[in-house]
Write a structure and sequence with these properties.
About 4% of the residues have low confidence. Helices cover 68% and strands 3% of the residues. The chain has 390 residues and is an all-alpha fold. It is flat and about 95 Å long.
Length: 390
């Protein structure tokens, strides 16, 4: 990969991204105007349709109806244009993330080369190696600057990291920790995606200071042995990660580092979610995990694994169905603002007092007892039918 080509590609994406953003602003203005025109057309139709004492209409009803049809068609056209503009923005954003990922992969590879060159500096070809180090650092830093520009162009505050001479010696004895170094190298890409999604959808619920806290301060990548040490008696093989309300610990030996990072970060931002056992007779643990995994899927979108990968898959699917009827706003507020009573009141108002407790216990028991999962499914189906009037 030639870093100059990557820089040029990034600049092109930033330019077309700005054009797309301007198109979105224009389309939103047109849509607002079209909505006003349709409202006016309906007002005219309402006026024209009024009758006098003789039963005669006061205006040109046919003409007013035609104006409504034209306004409706114009509004639909504006809505299509806005959808297309938003799709273009998302496509460009995806391409930007691809370039950021390329930079991360490039610098991860070159970090290894830098270590080797640093070793040569004190040997026979030290002078030549020093020149290579200088050039390599220039290219790596150019990549970081490019990455920062891309992130800033998406509204994500970023400052370019700086590689310096001598850092290549770090890791001479870390060959066994390549997965850890790789995970940290790609963290900025994952963080950008998470923060962009959170700001877009959850800013009303999450404390801005906590939402903008650098993930490097709260995420720790560890291997399986370290995970065992951290968890002690609570350790089970192949745990993907956990959060202790201060930091998220992610097992880099799993195949789902990104998914787990998103999941545990949601725990960090929600500060316990809907788990408030001092309020209810149930723990809400697995319902909370189901919501967390559901929001993980929402964050990752098409990048979320097609096949199930975690212990919470079944409960996530249950939450997804429940949220479809309940509404995402209620679920998100309950989760991020620690208000499980919102879900309790909604469920009990449709199915009777105590139903929420039964549902939550069924969620918790379903991890080890399939029949409890069937009970949870039945309660959710009853709720959806009641909510939708089926």
């Amino acid at each position: 990969m030639k870093i100059n080509e990557v820089k040029q590609k990034a600049e092109n994406l930033i330019e077309v991204g700005e054009q797309a953003r301007q198109q979105e602003v224009y389309c939103r203005g047109e849509l607002d105007a079209a909505s006003s025109q349709l409202s006016e057309a309906y007002d005219m139709l309402d006026y024209a349709s009024r009758t006098n004492e003789k039963g005669e209409t006061q205006g040109d009803v046919a003409g007013a109806q035609a104006r409504v049809y034209m306004a409706q068609a114009h509004l639909e056209s504006c809505e299509r244009a806005l959808r297309e503009a938003l799709e273009t923005i998302e496509r460009i954003k995806s391409q930007k993330y691809e370039v950021i990922s390329q930079v991360d992969q490039y610098n991860e590879t070159e970090s290894g080369n830098l270590s080797s060159l640093e070793l040569l500096r004190s040997k026979k070809f030290g002078e030549n190696a020093a020149k290579f180090v200088t050039d390599l650092l220039r290219r790596m830093n150019a990549g970081e600057e490019t990455k920062a520009r891309l992130l800033n162009s998406m509204g994500i505050a970023a400052v370019a990291a700086t590689f310096q001479a001598g850092m290549g010696t770090i890791g001479q004895d870390q060959s066994q920790n390549a997965d850890v170094r790789s995970a940290y190298s790609g963290l900025s890409t994952t963080e950008a995606k998470i923060r962009n999604h959170n700001q877009r959808y959850y800013s009303a619920y999450i404390n801005p200071e906590e939402m903008n806290r650098p993930m490097s301060e709260s995420v720790v990548f560890v291997n399986e042995n370290e995970m065992k040490t951290l968890l002690g008696d609570d350790y089970e093989p192949n745990i993907l990660g956990f959060n202790d309300n201060v930091r998220s610990y992610i097992n880099v030996e799993s195949s789902y580092v990104i998914e787990t990072t998103v999941h545990e970060n949601l725990h960090q931002l929600s500060s316990g979610g809907i788990m408030q056992s001092e309020i209810f007779n149930v723990k809400n643990e697995q319902m909370n995990e189901g919501i967390t995994e559901y929001l993980t899927k929402q964050t990752l979108g098409a990048e979320y694994p097609q096949s199930g990968y975690s212990l919470y898959d079944d409960n996530m699917i249950r939450i997804q169905k429940m949220t479809g009827a309940m509404g995402s706003q209620l679920v998100e507020e309950a989760y991020f603002q620690n208000k499980p009573e919102l879900i309790q009141q909604e469920i009990d108002s449709h199915l009777g007092s105590g139903t929420f407790d039964r549902l939550s216990k069924a969620f918790d028991d379903s991890i080890r007892h399939p029949e409890a999962g069937i009970l949870a499914n039945n309660i959710i189906n009853e709720y959806v039918s009641s909510k939708l009037g089926l």
